[in-house]
Design brief:
Length: 158
């Protein structure tokens, strides 16, 4: 025979499991931000060369069940390092760079000359923008909130 207390015990078990999950999510968000920040700092030491945008367009990510899709600017550019012509497609370390879709598309029109920053160890790894987009500052903030909430749930023993 079942007692009326079982559902409450299972609920407590589920809430208790949320603590470590929140801690892990918070730590992961903070670690991703640190990794990207370190990479962005390294790009500050990368040499630059002139390049030329050969193609740019707007890619529309499909709608999902959670809402409308998003837009992203795709850019292809040619640049030369040590006599070899290379083609890059990364605007920044985090993807398509900073600014609105319209601004990025205007900035990277085909035929436009651009500064290309490349990794001297792997010249095929290149970006057009060295800094991280401003919205990545949310990663450590939200990560810290997740971590604190997770620690509170874990320590309170709810």
């Amino acid at each position: 025979m079942r007692s009326g207390r079982e559902p409450a015990r299972f609920l407590k078990l589920e809430i208790t499991m949320l603590g470590p999950i929140f801690i892990l999510v918070g730590a992961a968000m903070f670690a991703i931000w640190l990794f990207l920040r370190k990479k962005a700092k390294a790009t500050g030491q990368w040499p630059s060369t002139r390049g030329r945008v050969v193609a740019s367009d707007v890619y529309r990510h499909p709608d999902t069940e959670n809402g409308p899709g998003s837009e992203d600017v795709r850019v292809a550019y040619d640049y030369e390092v040590a006599g070899a012509t290379l083609r890059g497609n990364r605007v920044s370390l985090s993807g398509s760079g900073s600014g609105t879709t319209k601004a990025k598309l205007a900035r990277y029109q085909p035929g436009t000359e651009v500064d290309v920053f490349y990794d001297p160890q792997k010249p095929a790894s290149a970006v057009l923008e060295r800094k991280l987009p401003g919205n990545l500052v949310l990663f450590p903030i939200v990560g810290t909130v997740f971590f604190i909430v997770g620690a509170a749930i874990t320590l309170s023993g709810i």
